[in-house]
Amino acid sequence: MNKSIKVVDVDKIGSATSPLALAKTVALVSSSESTRAGDVVVVCALTDSATYNMLELPTGRLAKINPGDLLLGVLGRRRALKGFVGDVPASLRSGDQLHLLNMGGVIGL
User: Fold this and answer.
1) Class of residue 23 by CB neighbours under 10 A (exposed 0-12, middle 13-18, buried 19+)
2) Is the dihedral of CA 12, 18, 23, 25 positive or negative?
3) Residue from 52, 9, 14 nearest 27 by CA
4) Full-prediction pTM beyond 0.85?
5) Per-residue H/E/C for the chain
6) Using an 8 Å Cβ cutoff, are 8 and 36 in contact?
7) Number of other CB atoms surrounding residue 84 within 10 Å
8) pLDDT of 55-83, one tens digit each?
9) Which member of 15, 18, 41, 86 has the lowest number of beta carbons within 10 Å of its beta carbon?
10) Cα(88)–Cα(92) distance, integer angstroms
């Protein structure tokens, strides 16, 4: 298994990570293993979104997401009647494009 470690400072932390009490400085471990719901991921916001332009922080406060922000969230599956629908990717590599599926920081395809 090939792993590399990188330390980054994130701009915003999604409330979906609340049980982990994560800090804004995190050590990223990338590997070739498969992914699963609940895995913590760091993503970079690429664009503004009219639907989800706010992220709920662990405090419950809403923060505006700006292009270029590094966000900490969790991989997850979401089914919604009026909202985004998505799944956990089977595998993930640095640079893959994902989507913010809800305001709490659930991220998927």
Assistant:
1) exposed
2) negative
3) 9
4) yes
5) CCCEEEEEECCEECHHHHHHCCCCEEEEEECCCCCCCCCEEEEECCCCCCCCCEEECCCCCEEECCCCCEEEEEECCECCCCCCCECCCCCCCCCCCCEECCCCCEEEC
6) no
7) 16
8) 999 999 999 999 999 999 999 999 887 77
9) 18
10) 10
Q: Which two tokens stand for residue 53?
A: 């332009």
Other CB atoms within 10 Å distance of the CB of residue 99 = 15
37: Cβ contacts below 8 Å, ≥ 6 apart? 74, 75, 76, 77, 88
Among residues 98, 106, 101, 86, the alpha carbon closest in space to that of 18 is found at: 106
**Apex CA 96: angle with CA 91 and CA 98, to 5°?**
90
